[in-house]
Structures are given as structure tokens and as C-alpha cells.
Amino acid sequence: MNNLLEVNEVSKKYGSYTALDKVSLQVPKGSIFGLLGPNGAGKTSLIRIVNQITYPDQGAVLFDGTPLNPEHIANIGYLPEERGLYKSMKVGEQALYLARLKGLSSAEAKERLKYWFDRLEIGDWWNKKIQELSKGMAQKIQFVVTVLHRPSLLIFDEPFSGFDPINANLIKDEILHLRDQGATVIFSTHRMESVEELCDDIALINKSKKLLEGKLVDIKKQYRSNTFEVGLDVSDQVVIRSEIEQKFQVSDASFKSLSDELKLKIHLDENGTPNDLLAYLVNRGNVTHFVEVIPTVNDIFIQTVKDSDL
Amino acid sequence: MNKLPLIIKREYIAKVRNRSFIVMTILSPLLVVGMVALVFFLTSANNDEAKVIAVLDEGQFFEGSFQNTSTLSYVSFEGMPLEAAKDSAQHKNYYGLLYIPQKSDIEQVAKNIEFFCRESPGMGVLSGMENVIQRNIRAAKLRDFGVSDQVMKDLERGYQINVENFTGEKKLRGINEMKAVIGGGFGYLIMMFIIIYGAFVMRSVIEEKTSRIIEVIISSVKPFQLMLGKIIGTSLAGITQFLIWIVLAGVLGVILAGVLGISADQLGSQAMSPEATQAVNGMSEGVGENLTPYIVELMKISWGWLLFSFVIYFILGYLIYSSIYAAIGAAVDNETDTQQFMFPVIMPLMLAVYVGFFSVFNNPHGPIAVGFSLFPLTSPIVMLMRLPGGIGEGGVPLWQFITSVVLLVTTFLFIVWIAARIYRVGILMYGKKPSYKELYRWLKYN
Question: What is the domain count for chain A?
């Protein structure tokens, strides 16, 4: 079994509102899976179904090959987007309570909490009340509580919101570390740069339908346009440019460089290869810059959503 | 693993540790006992000074009739002219002057009696004097008819019908009311408990919503478990508080009574105005003479049964109402939005108590009493008021008791089912105040 989680044709309605329309997903074991989509697309509805907070109207969810059942709750760690803690309860007590709700024994929970509190350097918060902590501090505790019972599936809904860059980085490293230890991570966010950085696989949901799914690399390949960004150091930029324009499809490019060279985006047709282009360019002047334009997740996201809205 | 005990424990500890809960637990009995002590103190301080009334009696009909009481003391101004007496009474700062002129017969005298005073006199003062005058007139008239003193004394005695049931057993007057008061006490207790601790449940649900911890928790436990744990935990905290109140109030009461040197007897007679005491004495003459049959009769109430039914009605009634409270808490975002849903909840409770007090006391087995003791939203209170009369012959018919419990259990299951569904959907809804129509739609969500 290569997929830890399989969502098959899941539909969910709230009254007359369709939150999910026959959505299917495969989340490979040990991957970081990005669940992307604009607000109201149905991400949270899907995540709630995986967490058995609500149930699908149609379709099924398989966890490690077996239909989702209450015993799986102990194998899932969920950090919701709408998250908080009891305001008047002490940090330690509350972490202990939440850990025990996941099925840990008291002793086990204490030991692991100590480990995590030391690791995140928050050991001296144990007896503080949440209302004394900042939002970022509370988020750290929520993170610890989410991962404490060593779930095989971790679901983070906008995990970095509310964190300063330093702590966001810290949490990002922890997530990668957990993945390396064998956990599978589902990661729902709007922050595309963190998707680029972390995700192996992505799925894109818009208006309750899945639009796109697969390995991030494959999707990027699919969206590549055989376009290259080049920098060419030549004496007469205008002449060279018009010369190139006769042979290729050209547009302006902007990238940072040290010299004032000719900057172009060159689009190759299906038969063109980067080597041919490079060979051609080398004969015209000094090539200072030669990079394939890879679509960012952000580009793919915007383009796909736009296309589906048409 | 069953997580219910964990939830109950957390809810209980969170409640019991809450600062306002602790303050209320300690302060309430202090306040109540203090209030009683204050009222007692003020009453006795108020009555401490007997009002002095000058009596100018020119005739002989009322000689020696005005005896000092604890509230009124009389000073004789005999032989003084009226104007001098008025002047003197005013000068000596007496409460007033009672002027009884000289006439040939008592009726004429009574017609011309006058009371002079600074301000309009209190009812107690007036009726105190009026009683004396009235008694004298009556006595004088009867004497005119040649009625002997002995007969007159006999006439003073009241009359009471002996009540027996058809099998010849002696029945005690007032026993029904006494029993209804006992049942009413239980019913009132249930109502108070529901109103206080139901609101606690609601607030605790709202707290989980506003602190946004709810989704974290229900990814670990079923919403129904959470709701149930919350209700049970809160009610255990409530029972703890109630027990502490009872113990604390008892201890404080005893201490206070010891400190102030009040015997129970004194408390009874002094705290009430003399007239009230008189009235009570008159009414309870029969009771006072033979208290034992009453005690025997009250002991005959099957207390085991009564307590058993109390527990049943208490648990079911409380669960019904607190799950409604939980659903309300889940449906709204903050406490101010709860108002529109609260009224329909409180109304049957209020109705039960007032209908109980006015209807059940008079006629424990009348149609209204029966109806309300079967209707599940009022039965926990009203049925308990009827139950001290016993079950079966002469009491609540067995079928009514069974029907009432069956209806209550059915309603309980139904309401908890509805509440759980509203709760489940509501806890994840933010931002808008739902209408009843919307709540109805939530019932149908999967």
C-alpha cells in the first residue's frame, strides 16, 4: 500500500450548499501533501471528514487501506485553522488533557511533553495560563499537542498563520523532521512559497471540485512552457534583439543582474531544445544568464483557478 | 478507550477551580445566614422600644383592660382634663393619647373614643387597641344578656371539625399542605439547580467556541461525548456546591444562633409581629396540642420512595434542560445572543413552579395538577409536589406516575438527540446568529 490516505469520490452537502463534489485524492505515505484552494473551496470540509468530525454524504475514505473508523483518530494529528486553547487553564494541564484525549496514558504524555517543551524551549511555560502567553506562544503549544501522540498522519490547516518568521521556520523544520521520521503530512494553505518549499505532492480544489492533483514536479512539468530567461551581453542591444525576434517568440524579462545586459524571455516551439537556443545565443554575444522559466505554484494556482472559473 | 471520564474530570475541575465559583460557594451561605441574622436583628431592634400610649379613661368600662404588651405600654392619665392630657402626652413625647369619655353605656363610649397622635399611627398599634376595646364591648354586651363568665370563656374556644376517612382513620387538617410544601421544596430545588447549572453548561460551551479550542477537541472525541461530559461534570460541580452550601449554612446558622443567644423558640415568636404570632397560635391550636400525630403522619410518607423519585426526576429533568442549554450555547457565538432562546426554556420551569404552588397545594389531584405532572417539561417539578401524598390509594395513581416517568424518559431521549445534533453543527459555526429555521435545517445535516 503506497497511499496512506485515499479519498474516493467524496461528496458533502450542507443543506443546498455543496461543499465537496466527488473529490478524490491519493496521499502517498511519507509525503508532504499540499491541499490548495481559495477560501471556501472545500478544503476544511474535506479535512473535517478525514478527522471524522463530519461524515461524507457519498464516497469513502480509506486510511492505510481500511475504511475510516474511530480507531484511526489516534493515528491522526490535526491542527485546525480555527484553533485555540482554554484561556484559564494552565499550559501543562491543558496539554496533558488534550494528549490524554488522544489516548496517551498520563505518564507517557508527561514524558513526551517534557521532551517537546525542552525541544521548543518552552519548558518554563508549564504553569502559565494561556491568557498570559502571546498568540505565537500558544501556537507552539498547539503544535506540540498536535504531534504528541506520534500520529502517522498529520494535518495542518494554515500552520504558519500567527507565527513570526523565526518560529515559522522552526515549525517548518519540525514538520520536515517529522516527515523524515515517517509521518505523512497534509498541509492546507494559501501560502504558496511554503508549498514550493515543502510539498512533494499537491492537489488543487476550487468550488468544491478537485482541479489538479499529482507530484509537484510532474505538475510543474505539465505547466512548463519551454520558455527560457536569458541575459546577453552585446554591444548593440536593439539590433540583436530584432535579430532574435525573427527567429523566436520573445518578450521582456526582468531579473537581477550585475551588468546592463539584454534581458529576454525566449519561447521555444515544440522542436526547439535548450541546447539549440544556447548554441545560437553564444554566437551573438556573452551569455550571462540562462534559466528555464519554471511555473511557480502561485502561477499554476492562479491560472487553474481562473480557467475553472471561466 | 472511553474518554468520557477525562472530560467529566476536566469540566469538574475547571468549574470548581473557577474563582467566581469559589467565591459564590463561600459567600452565598454567608450572605443568606447574614441576611437572616440581619433581619432578625433589625426586627428585634425595631420592637425593642415599646411605644408608650397615654390613656385618659373618664369612665369605668375599660378599667384595667389596657395591659402592657411587648410593643405597647400604657400610662394612665386618669383624672386629668383632656386638654392638659393632650399637652402632657405631646410634651412627654408619648406615641399618642387614647381618650375614653364618660358615657352611660359602653356603646356610646366606644363611639366617642378618640386617639390623638403626632403622625398617623401604625396598623399594629391601632389594631392592638381596637382588639382590647372590641373584646370589652363584646363582654359587656354578653354580660347584659346575663351570660356568665364561664360561658364567655367557653365561647372563646374555637371549633374544628374532626376529619376521618371512610375507613375510620383519623385525618389531620393541613397535612396535605404540609406534604405539598415538602414536595414543593424538592421541586423548587430542581428548578433552581436547572437554572443555575444549566446556564453554566451553556457558558462553558460558548467558552469553548470563542476560545476556538472546540475543533481541536472534537478531532479527538465525539461531540456527543463532549456534551455529555460537560453536562455531567458541571452538575457534579453543582452538587458539590449545593452540599457545601447546606453544610456551611447549617454550621453558620448554629454558630450564629449560639453567639446571639437565640433559641429556636424565641426566633419563632419574636421574628413575627404579635398579631401574626397570635394568628398562628390560634390556627395551630389543634396542631400545637397534639403535634405527634403530624409527625407520625409525616413519617408515614414513604421517604425512600420520595427520594427515589426525586433522584429520577432530578436526573432526567436536569439532563433534558441542560442539553437544551448546551445546544443553545453551541448555536450562538456569545452570551448576549442567547436571550431569544432562553425565554422558551425558562417559561415551562416558571410555569411549573407557580402552577404547582397555586394549584397543587389546593388540590393535588385536580386536572391541572395531573396535566402538569404528566407533561414532561413540567413534571419533574409538579409531580414531586404531588408525590408526598403517596402513590396509589389516596395519592398519585400508579398509572399517572408510570406515564409521567415514561413520557419523561421518551422526551429525554428525543431532546438529547435533537440537542446533540444542533450542538454538533453549531460548535463549528461562527459569525452569525442562527434563526429557529436554521436550527431546524441543522437537524437534517449528516
Answer: 2
ipTM: 0.81
Interval A278-289: pLDDT, tens: 888 888 888 888
Q: Top-level CATH class of B50-152?
A: alpha beta
Q: What CATH number does residue A10 fall under?
A: 3.40.50.300
Residue B367 is placed in which grid cell?
A: 386536572
Looking at beta carbons, which residues of chain A come within 8 Å of B7? 101
Residue entry with cell 404552588? B357
Residue B206 contacts by C-beta under 8 Å, 6 or more apart in sequence? B329, B332, B333, B334, B335, B338
Considering only the beta carbons, identify the residue of B211, B441, B445 that sits closest to A84: B211
Whether residue A143 is found in the same domain as residue A252: no
Beta-carbon separation of B428 and A48 below 8 A? yes
pLDDT higher than 90, residue A62? yes
**Cβ-based contacts of B209 with chain A (< 8 Å):** none
- To the nearest whole Å, the CA of B32 is away from the closest chain A CA by 30
Q: Which residue among B14, B211, B217 places its CB closest to the CB of A101? A: B217
Nearest Cα residue in chain B from A79: B216
Q: Under an 8 A CB cutoff, do B444 and A15 touch? A: yes
DSSP B23-51: HHHHHHHHHHHHHHHHHHHHHHHHHHSPE
The structure's pTM equals: 0.75
Query: What are the extents of the domains in chain B?
Result: 50-152, 174-229+292-443
A228 to chain B, closest Cα gap in Å: 47
Question: How far apart, in Å, do the first and last CA atoms of chain A sit?
Answer: 38
CB B418 within 8 A of CB B347: no
Minimum-distance CB partner of B211 among A87, A100, A101 = A87
